């Protein structure tokens, strides 16, 4: 018989790699905020409750249209909470030219045939300016998939389902049940792959009409829920085409990272407040002259691309129902998201919070697939290894999931992770590269330039020195940099908080 999702808990969220959700088996629903009856769906309610809204006999599914999902904890709210985007400054700076940093005294009111409008010195105050422009939102590189949720027990695992996997890069779930989301090509007519082809067709294939089809290539990318007209993705109709050329708000379309101006400001000390008429002389100091005004400003700083705090995992797509028992085919090391406070069977599922657990006994299967066989020692694992008897579970606390970027040094892609070799280990004894490595949030300069709305003089003239009168700003040829200011302490996209769990053992039941 085909495999069931009997060991996958009701309330599980996974991704689905096709536009046509009518291909979903009974017992699965799109995460679109729909209301369900508590009485008729007791198991689902027990897992997610009112975390996503509702009251009395009606409760809501999570609405993940246009959203990213992020693990709870480490400052991230309880599961089911909508998360507003934030944009940290990440050492972003505005660079201005000729800004005065010193001044000189000139005779007040000295007027003559060669007088000039000179810029007064701003001695005590600073002036703040709002940064505008930038992109319509802050987000990481991403691909559109549907997010779906299991609503009933004993139902089929969908072909085309996409799951994160916590095993090290030396291990993978069983083929042909699970195929790595690496863009590989398969024969569409072969029995092992025809069911998957019937679901995803050529959407991820760059040569449409070929006898082969390709699975999604998620290398280095984040998954975003298909917006479906909700409006959480302001650029839903401007996304980059899927590999088969499909454009618009459809599964498989891609999106470059974005950086909004958010609430960025820059504060400039001694910004020229006004002008006065000063005498021009053959000898004196070079002062700012009110002429040749410009609004030129350049920007620097930031990281290579905007991204949330994240952990690196491999993604696999479900390609073939199997007849294994008692397993439903969902692999040990597979990760699920739950949008509520319910807890799946503790005999096979553990919270992905980085806890150190024994290598032997109940966690032995997970230990076996998180070790690095390529390591020169026996103490390196994907997620951490505090001593010879224990290892760390995946730590997805407060993190989004990013597909592992396995490209070699020097091989770059618009949607990859340019910082894949400068990530960090999740815990001591963990790997700093590949699956299990983690990355702090960062803000990149936007695709559409920032702007600061002001102008200032750039001309110089020699003025007479004097002992009384007004303070005039001296001319400054150096570039001065002014750091962006914001209340945000991290960069993160629009999203919904979830609890992540990892399957650590075979067997178990609902």
Characterization of this structure:
The structure is a single chain. The chain has 510 residues and is mostly beta strands. 4% of the residues lie in helices and 31% in strands. It has three helices and 36 strands. It has helices spanning 42-48, 194-200, 364-370; strands at 13-16, 28-30, 35-37, 54-55, 58-60, 68-71, 82-83, 93-97, 103-106, 116-119, 126-139, 142-150, 161-165, 178-180, 185-187, 212-214, 222-225, 254-255, 258-260, 265-269, 275-278, 280-289, 298-300, 310-318, 335-338, 349-351, 356-358, 390-392, 400-403, 424-425, 437-439, 450-452, 459-463, 470-473, 479-483, 495-503. It is elongated, with a radius of gyration of 29 Å.
Record the SSE blueprint.
Elements: E1 13-16, E2 28-30, E3 35-37, H1 42-48, E4 54-55, E5 58-60, E6 68-71, E7 82-83, E8 93-97, E9 103-106, E10 116-119, E11 126-139, E12 142-150, E13 161-165, E14 178-180, E15 185-187, H2 194-200, E16 212-214, E17 222-225, E18 254-255, E19 258-260, E20 265-269, E21 275-278, E22 280-289, E23 298-300, E24 310-318, E25 335-338, E26 349-351, E27 356-358, H3 364-370, E28 390-392, E29 400-403, E30 424-425, E31 437-439, E32 450-452, E33 459-463, E34 470-473, E35 479-483, E36 495-503
Parallel strand pairs: 6-36, 12-17, 24-29
Antiparallel strand pairs: 1-12, 1-13, 2-12, 3-5, 4-5, 7-36, 8-23, 8-35, 9-34, 10-21, 11-19, 11-20, 11-32, 12-18, 13-24, 14-24, 15-16, 22-33, 24-31, 25-36, 26-36, 27-28, 30-31
